[in-house]
Design goal:
By secondary structure, this protein is of the alpha+beta class. Helices cover 31% and strands 16% of the residues. The chain contains five helices and six strands. The protein has a six-stranded antiparallel beta sheet.
């Protein structure tokens, strides 16, 4: 899967705002080029502010915060997906809360493998560098589930 394929797939899920950070979007320069996928049933997610993405696509390291994936390598990007506690444990084999104890067992630079997110595992986020033959189907499924989780969190507000 390419970056564009992922962006088009998520945008095609419906009720999603794909925000690619740029100078024009007012995002901090460090985030420029990264994409954030927001559940947006009424087309006003950006107006409301304080939005939380259900998935992101990042193309570079964030120094002193998130550099374990070595995203500054040419052609490397990472898809990050908020899957929640239960699905995280199913995929990774331990709970998000226990991730610190298991962290050393993961190579966060390995492509095409479902991994705990190097910075947000404790919040139930998974990550995949350059999804390929081993993970692309599962990544699509997880992106759909993450969007549905985001929709479920907003339902009381929509009524």
């Amino acid at each position: 899967m390419t970056e564009d394929e992922i962006i088009h797939f998520v945008a095609g899920l419906g009720q999603v705002d794909v925000m690619t950070a740029s100078r024009e979007s007012g995002a901090p320069e460090i985030a420029w080029g990264d994409s954030f996928f927001l559940y947006d049933p009424d087309g006003r997610a950006r107006e409301r502010g304080g939005f939380t993405p259900f998935a992101t696509l990042v193309t570079k390291d964030y120094p002193d915060f998130d550099s374990d994936s070595d995203l500054d390598r040419p052609g490397v990007f990472r898809v990050n997906i908020a899957v929640g506690r239960a699905l995280f444990e199913e995929v990774v084999g331990h709970t998000p809360a226990a991730h610190a104890e298991h962290r050393e067992g993961f190579d966060f630079t390995e492509p095409d493998r479902l991994l705990p997110h190097p910075a947000y595992a404790a919040q139930g986020w998974l990550a995949v560098l350059n999804p390929g033959p081993r993970t692309s189907g599962r990544v699509r499924e997880l992106l759909c589930l993450a969007k549905e989780r985001a929709a479920a969190r907003h339902r009381p507000q929509e009524q």
